[in-house]
Amino acid sequence: MKRPSDVTQEIASLSRDLTSVLKVLADRGESALPAEPESAAVAVSPVAVVETGMGEIELPPTDLGKEARMESLRQQAMECRRCRLAKERQKVVFGVGSSSARVVLVGEGPGANEDRTGEPFVGRAGQLLNRMLATIGMDRKEVYIANIVKCRPPRNRDPEPDEIAACRPFLDAQLETLRPEVILALGRPAAQSLLNDQRPLGQLRSVVHKLGKVALLVTYHPAFLLRNPARKAAAWEDLQLLVDVMVSKGVCGALPEPWWRP
Ligand code: URA
């Protein structure tokens, strides 16, 4: 049983937390506590500004609506100079897709084609990704596609931990805005970073992880599959698991036939 002094301390701490939440809401001009979120939420702290140590990101108010919030984040990303990747980029690759998407795909970082066009997954890996989506009856317009870093790492090297950390508030804010049901991490850097788990990709796939209330699945990066076609069969299993999770969450309705099974 807790001692009375522990209970008093706990109440004092809860009261401080509540006071800071109310202050943030008052600063945003809100006079009531927000209603329960409509769907799955990614756990983020109730602050209006995220301090990365490299510059602040302003979280747009929740009453703006998803499209306007995403646009506000996009504008901030366009001007971002929080890490060294900003120096050599041609375009910031913020993300693309429907703001009502219930599935979000997260890749590693832009390559040359993406850096030139400003859109994620438009090169050969992107074409394979489109085909992978088509095999489960989906079009890239139905999902949202983002990366863990929004600027191209030189010579397509893996993003460094400090670059990932500098960009993470943007990804968190995108996920918090979209509130997807399912996230599919494409490749090791995305999976390890989202799950904060350094195990190899082989140990992270075939499992339905949780990121807050959101289901998170892991599969091979399409660029890896282009180099290692023998792993496509395993990626196909991952996509079947994705479909199973989507069906269980009502994202794609009950498919009439489990046609993806042999
Ligand atoms: N690879 C990625 O991880 N992301 C892209 O946008 C393109 C290639």
Short précis:
By secondary structure, the protein is of the alpha/beta class. Helices cover 43% and strands 12% of the residues.
Written account of the structure:
The protein has 262 residues and is an alpha/beta fold. The protein has two domains: 1-79, no CATH class; 88-262, Uracil-DNA Glycosylase, subunit E (3-Layer(aba) Sandwich). Helices cover 43% and strands 12% of the residues. The chain has helices at 4-27, 66-78, 85-88, 112-117, 124-135, 161-178, 188-195, 201-204, 222-227, 232-248, and strands at 49-51, 56-58, 96-97, 103-107, 144-147, 182-186, 209-211, 214-219. The protein starts with a helix and ends in a 14-residue tail after the last helix. The structure holds uracil.
What's the CATH H-level homologous superfamily of the largest domain?
Answer: Uracil-DNA glycosylase-like domain
Distance between the termini: 56 Å
What is the level 1 CATH name of the largest domain? Answer: Alpha Beta
Low-confidence stretches: 9-47
H/E topology pattern? HEEHHEEHHEHEHHEEHH
Strand content: 5-15%
| Count of alpha/pi helices | 10
Total E-strand runs: 8
Computed CA radius of gyration, to the nearest angstrom: 20 Å
What is the fold named in CATH at topology level of the largest domain? Uracil-DNA Glycosylase, subunit E
Overall morphology: globular
- Estimated structural class: alpha/beta
* Approximate helicity band: 40-55%
CATH architecture of the largest domain: 3-Layer(aba) Sandwich
What strand line-up does the widest sheet have?
Answer: 3-5-4-6-8-7
Bound compounds: uracil
